[in-house]
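Posting this for the archive.
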Amino acid sequence: MTSQAQPDVTWSTWVLATGAALALAYVVCFTRWGWRFAPEGLPFMALALAILGALGALIAVRPSAPALIGIAAWGVVALWVCSFFRDPRPSGPRGDGYVIAPAQGRIVGVVDADEPAYLGGPATRISIFLSVFDVHVNRYPVSGTVELVRYNKGKFLHAAKDKASLDNEQSTIGLQGPHGPVLVRQIAGSVARRIVTDARAGDPARQGERLGMIRFGSRVDVFLPKASPARLRVRVGDKVVVGTTVLAEYTP
């Protein structure tokens, strides 16, 4: 009984298979994200993809198991870089009766707080923690007018900690909405080192449109006046989607 010879799987086969798998993953993810990315991320994405291309060229010339593992690993890293700067078009409830999520992540706090910077009194603070896997583009929670934009330098504590709202680097945006003032605070985290705020005092704010972004892990707080007729629709532990999830709803 003769045994059949096993086919020889060449390095070129493995390289092509790895390249095809990475290409498919990129097409599927980019299609899901709508092929929209924050402009701040383009240099990072270009660098990550350039390194991926260089590794691909190297492995084509000198194929080896470590090189194949390296390109596969870097392919995942480069995909994460692109994922971080994705900017999907949000859809969801709109209108004067809603306060929508200005950030994507997990609700880590719904507490009473004093807010003297803009609201000038007691408020309800809703805190959203953004992990490095969440969308980091921020959007206006209500329509109206930007009345305050204030940047404060600070520390880089872990963004989920309660003290981060007071001590960390942050940008405060005060909005005069259809039912009164709403404050949004972008807070840098232990990894984040760059807050981008598009808003300027006097600008119109359109619910769901881009407000800015924070790079690499952060937190966004929303302050509503304690006397506001808004009814909260979220609680600690909830996952929220930027520009889509309703944080609070104004009752007649």
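The two ends are 86 Å apart (CA to CA). Residues 11-32 form the longest helix (22 residues).
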